[in-house]
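Contributing new records

If you add data, match the layout below exactly. Sequence lines come first and carry their own label; structure lines follow with theirs. Keep one chain per record. Anything else will be rejected by the validation script.
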Amino acid sequence: MFLSKKILLSTLLTSSLFSGSITFENAPNNPTHKLPNSSNEILSFNSILKNSMSAVINISTSTIVSSQNDQNRLFNDPFFQEFFKNYGSRPEAPTQRKQASSLGSGVIISKDGYIVTNHHVISDADEILITMNNSDKEYIAKIIGTDKGSDLAVIKIEAKNLKPIRLSRAKDIELGDVVFAIGNPFGVGQTVTQGIVSALHKDHVGINQYENFIQTDASINPGNSGGALIDSRGALIGINSAILSQSGGNHGIGFTIPIDMVRNIVTKLIQDGKVNRGFIGVNISKVTQELKGLYQHKKGAIITDVQYNSPASKAELLRGDLIFAINGKEVKDPSELQRMVTSHNPKEIITLSIEREGKNIEKRLTLMSRDMDKLISKNHATLEGLYLSELTPKIRQEHQVSPNIEGVLIEDIVAQSPAHLNGFRPNDIIIQVENRNISTLQELKTSFRVYKDQTKRVYINRNGYIILLVTK
């Protein structure tokens, strides 16, 4: 039996995962794109903005953490260890303190209080307070579900007859469209900035795991995260997520999660409390200039490896196969293949169009859950119910781990396993076992073997805080 002692306080507000449904307020189809040209017209969006601004809310979060965590970090310093050895035992710290609040934005998407925002705005929050535009009334929100991979989350307040924002569609968004960003930058209150759609389908930005951003030069600043990007009709075209900046200021390069992805993720979070993504089990590469001469199709994704016992393996896909379409829809590059596959649910059947040795063939396969990737990947090791990965550059990017942190990442945990019962969580980073620092899987395995059947202290980094778990 493992014994455990978790020092981090349990949160006051936990995710509420339950089935639900939602009806979106849709904008009209096929809008006309034009510029007013009358000699006595002033181009103004005042009436449109009023309606949209009422659907954008301010979010304030706070987190309660154990001050014992701070004390442990302090007393790990050799100077303090020597001090208390010579002058007595270390003092006891207060059991908890309230961390400073953080600010963000959200968008009302239903009359009965569903709100979409960014995952990073409300992650690890113990309390989420919502205030409406031009109102002092506060609501306490509960978390319906979050999805770190897309940086989206759904929260809900107990309210009725709200005015939700209208939702546009990706096919109605064009390069150069005038757009407005609405949010709560720096906590100064609701603000609107104007710009245009600078680019579409931006990926490889290094912000989220699943990227398909709208790029805009409308100013997006701290506090705008989770707010709305709307078109000149006032319809939502995306949720503002991040900026590209070395100084933290706005340089006219903002990234917004597009509306079709928002619809898909929000619907899954409301229905299931989480996002189950389809998975086929292949490593893929783009069709480079050097490879174009070997294939008839010049676009798509080339399979470089097939994972054992995966849907791709069962469908007899091979290295060198070029996937150029899914269900008849063209695949332009590996990023698009990933987006298309993960937009489907596990157990769905899809048809892949493949070029193999100059011939076009079709393969039907049944998608597996994306979570199963951890269970069948050869790059993961299991230890006491933990699925672990070393902090490779790719893993650091996917899980947003700072370059100065060393350790082994817990990607997943088997439910009711010893690790689960001992308080380990997904995304924890194991940094030390007893007096052994950990930076590789082999070091971790060796440490557990050395201290087998002994009570041992395991130090983990959890969102920047050092947590101590005691196991046997």
